[in-house]
Design a protein that fits this description.
The chain has about 150 residues and is mainly beta. Helices cover about 5% and strands about 50% of the residues. The chain has a single domain, classed as OB fold (Dihydrolipoamide Acetyltransferase, E2P) (Beta Barrel), CATH 2.40.50.100. It is built from one helix and eleven strands; from the N terminus they run βββββββββαββ. The strands form two sheets. It has a six-stranded antiparallel beta sheet with strand order 1-11-5-2-3-4, with no helix packed on it. The longest helix has 7 residues.
Length: about 150
């Protein structure tokens, strides 16, 4: 992946505390709207889960335009979870907990969202406070500054 085909984050992955390479979430999407102002772009992208928003520096990348297929990339440490029906943020979407690996500091939570897998690493205190368990329905959100876009067309 080079700078001409992705926007929004560095590609330096974390090694998670469970001994595996970080699981970068990667979902297919389509750009629906691009709002530009003062060198920034807020990009609305559709996915089966709903609309996700990316906030990137607008440096005139040619492929950032409506109806363009993209890959939505985000780190598992950037996934925000809240009790079902309580997320106040635009771009939040429902998800269901599939599995939890409890850690003393971090917990790995695997979710299903509109048929797509979603991996999240949460502070274990937050995981416990939310009562995260298999089968629990939650709201998920990816902060716009944490969502990177990769050109999805050949």
């Amino acid at each position: 992946m080079d700078g001409s085909s992705w926007l929004g984050m560095d590609t330096h992955f974390l090694n998670d505390l469970f001994g595996n390479e970080s699981k970068l979430n990667r979902w297919p999407g389509v750009i629906r709207q691009v709002d530009r102002d003062q060198g920034l772009a807020r990009i609305a992208c559709s996915h089966d889960a709903g609309v996700l928003y990316a906030l990137v520096v607008d440096d005139g990348v040619e492929w950032i335009r409506p109806e363009r297929r993209v890959n939505l990339l985000f780190k598992e440490t950037e996934v925000v979870l809240s009790p079902c029906g309580t997320a106040p943020w635009p771009g939040s979407f429902p998800a269901k907990v599939v599995s939890v690996r409890h850690g003393r500091i971090l917990s790995e939570v695997v979710l299903e969202c509109a048929g797509a897998p979603l991996c999240a690493l949460l502070d274990s205190a937050v995981e416990k406070a939310l009562g995260i368990r298999d089968g629990l329905e939650v709201d998920a959100w990816i902060p716009p500054a944490a969502l990177a876009l990769e050109d999805g067309e050949p």
